[in-house]
Amino acid sequence: MVSISVIVPVYNVERYLDECLSHIVNQTFRDIEIICINDGSTDNSLEKLNQFAEKDSRIRIVSQQNRGLGAARNNGIELAKGDYIYFMDGDDYLELNAFEQLYDLSQKHDLDFAMFKINNFNETDNETIHDEYYSMPYLKKRVGGNVFNYSDVEDVALKLAVNAYGSFFKREFMIDLRFPEGLLFEDNVFFTKALFKAERIIFYDEFLYNRRVRKDSLSNKFSIGFLDTIDISDLLIDLINEYGYDQYKNELYYRIFHNVYSMFENAPEEHKPDLFLEIRKRYMKFSNKWERDEYFKNDLKKRYSHIYNSALQSDSSEEFELRVKIYDKQRKINKLKKENKRIERKLEKIKKENDIIKSTKGFKLIKD
Prior knowledge:
nine-stranded mixed beta sheet
């Protein structure tokens, strides 16, 4: 048995593997196994992995056809033998005492998992990018260094930083935790289920992980893959149905309809036809399921319903966009009409008050 299993999915990151693996093999905590999942790399990543494995027997390399990050991590989970599991991305690096701190903390408090802060740095100049999403000062303010669970952070549960590499998990806690495969944003489902399920969590107020912000990062590019947010949000709806946390449905449908339409609206014109077809395809995929949902039927915001129906009923991206734009303009007109009526009522009230003042003896004396 080993104390910590480190799972490192690797896909075409040969430029960064030296730094990544050096900061793992040289951890002050030595009792680790390093499971590197080569996810069909086409560069020299596998050669780099083999070079490290020749020098360190703790490294195990498993190659698979390219199946994506979720599948690579799941493969690593099945192979892991450690008391704890940690997920590492191949283009980032850890502080050298990270495992020592996390292991001691988890042992001391018998944690299901520990969360910690992430330092973002720019690849071009190594400058730190300050980002409260990854440092979560509001979480520190809420829980301090105390053990907590979902009930203590219920109102901010869907706002916590979602990433696999920002948490350190007890392996036996993860028996039913797996990543969705073949989708982007797979961390969302995994982390949210972990949060709902865990009884003992700690937020460790230290920067232990260094996340490289790359020019060629997927998050910096337009990609039709961003529509995976529809599938991921649907999986999260299943999850909150399972746990009975319906209060999050508005936020999830917001992502499915508002966010998706915003992405479509702001996309380059040449991509809109393909985007529209993919949006309609995914909405149709889940239509029967959503339309049976009581929240969707009775409480879904009217604009979200209009976006949904417009996608299903439109024959082209131009028609889809026009339907939503007309709806939004009409809403704006109706809002202005209501505001105008409010102003008219206020003016009428002022006029009446003015007439009353004018009829008083005091006003007449002043006038004379």
